[in-house]
Amino acid sequence: MKTTNNYIDIEKFLSAIEHTKVEIIQLSKFAKLAALTSIDIKGITIQEISFDCTVEHQGKINDTHYVFKLQKVIHKGIHNGISATKNSLIIATHSENYTASSAGEYICISISIPKELILEWFGELKDGVFNFDNLNLIEDFISIMNKILMLEINNKFHEEYLYNLILYKIGKLLSRIQMFDKKTKAHKKFNNISTFIKKTQREDFSIQEIADHFNVTDRTLRNIFIKEIGLAPKEYQTAIKMNIFKKEIINNPKYSITKIMRSSGMQYQSLLSKNFKDLFGCTPKEYQNRFNSNHYCNISVFLYLFSILNSQLSSYLRF
Q1: Are residue 164 and residue 202 in the same domain, yes or no?
Q2: Above 60 in pLDDT, residue 159?
Q3: Domain of residue 168, residue span
Q4: pTM (2 decimals)?
């Protein structure tokens, strides 16, 4: 069955990505809605994943699947410390933990295939970022996946043909890959500094203090961040704080925004509100109201359905 959905909330968007548990840090505002198109063919799930904001994310692949990703649109991308481009195939193996980032607009094709099927057809595969000298192979594969995503599958013969075509094309890619096996020094430096910022966000270190801590100039620090994630260090630091604050709002739906702000060690509510709106498109209070509305609406629906079921069950037991 094929489905296409648009999302304004990153949390709902993530929950729709198949066979992967993802936690994301949104570093810039959506220019338009995130979108997800999915189709399932005999247990193989193809998804086109599209969003246009800068993000960092970490995830884990379900132990039942392998996931293959090809980038249709990518400006700057990193997967486990290795640069990912339009020439790259990313293979994420079952139970693998990974970290990744992308800057600006990003569109990829993700193919989730059951582990037993991969072992039967190809044997055990290694995870990694793989490069193709011949870009036509990637473009041909993406073109076929795009056509499949637009199809309405009418019968089992049609489904069986597409099922074998997907596995054949995966095999063709696997026979022609070369691996990127070196993480860049710049990424290692960026990873150390960004981890420090996340761990010490309550300390509210200045950018100069962070630069001094890592024995670099503030200009060098800026260049590292612009090259790796497309954001200045201060923009990155602010985005981390806003993501942490949003998570606190989600985890404490009954608290006032002021109480959440104080418990999170944040000050200057007007500035916080502005930074939050710049990143997520609404104020903290608007976000809390929207989240609580969805949360309690779901509970109300559940209670309503439960009352109907309970009434029907009681009528049944009276006979």
Answers
A1: no
A2: yes
A3: 2-179
A4: 0.78
